[in-house]
Amino acid sequence: MPFTKPALRAQALARRKETPAEASAAFAAHLAAEGLALVERLRPGIVSAYFPLDAEPSTLPLLEKLSRAGVKTALPITGRLGTPLVFRLWHPGEPTVKGKMAIEEPLPEAPETAPDLLFVPLAAFDRTGHRIGYGAGFYDRTLAGLRAQKSIWAVGVAYANQEFPKVPHDAHDESLDYVLTERELIDCRARP
Description:
It is a single chain. The chain is of the alpha/beta class. The chain is about 30% helix and about 20% strand. The strands form 3 sheets. Strands 6-3-2-1-7-10-11-12 form an 8-stranded mixed beta sheet, with helices on both faces. Strands 4-5 form a two-stranded antiparallel sheet.
């Protein structure tokens, strides 16, 4: 019997929480190096990443490397349920405020922007680029809106143990272009 999204989400998040601190730190360093290499190859104008929460892989070293390399970086702002994310420019070291869901966000006066490459948090994924997020649909609405305006890249960030052979998805679910794990960069664009 196939997994439902809530069941798969719970299983994937439980796996992620089992990650030892040393492995988390190693993945953050790997993500910074490989994420920068991907950005240098794709050459997006503006890159967004999430501010890590709970047991999410940390994107902070990546944001620091990108900033030092002269790449414009941004963080998402979570609004009302049913709305897409808003992005504001932010560089490591600049102040943040706790937004909805207790996630650190840039100050309200930081300029709003539309990223060209997004490092996306997730609960579960498969190699065809389907992902399960946390259930509110913020990233699906955001990716759909951005893709309607311009060409973008969506890069999921996850531990390899969050991969499943097939993730259930609906017509409104937006797929990832890549998934970056501690083991590899998965190119999901060649979907079967």
